[in-house]
Amino acid sequence: METIQFIGVTPEQLQRQISNGVKEQLNEFLKHYTPKQPNEYLTRQEVATMFNVDLSTIHNWCKSKKLKPIGLGARVYFLRSDIEQSLTYLNS
Prior knowledge:
Elements: H1 11-32, E1 41-43, H2 44-51, H3 55-63, E2 70-72, E3 75-79, H4 80-86
Antiparallel strand pairs: 1-3, 2-3
């Protein structure tokens, strides 16, 4: 183990040096850290409300593979991220 001697350093200076070192490490960490957003699942009704369309339109979009439904038992859900990825720009 390495030994360090603090000669001529006041406790306040030592505390300031430690604080600066911790701040540098935190800033470096925050530059590369991006929090993972939790998946948001939407029901058929929520998707229909989002686009102001009927449930039959949501059914047709699923059949034509425009939307990717996810099933859990008899329930159908859609990932918000999948819906946003399926949108395309017009006139591009």
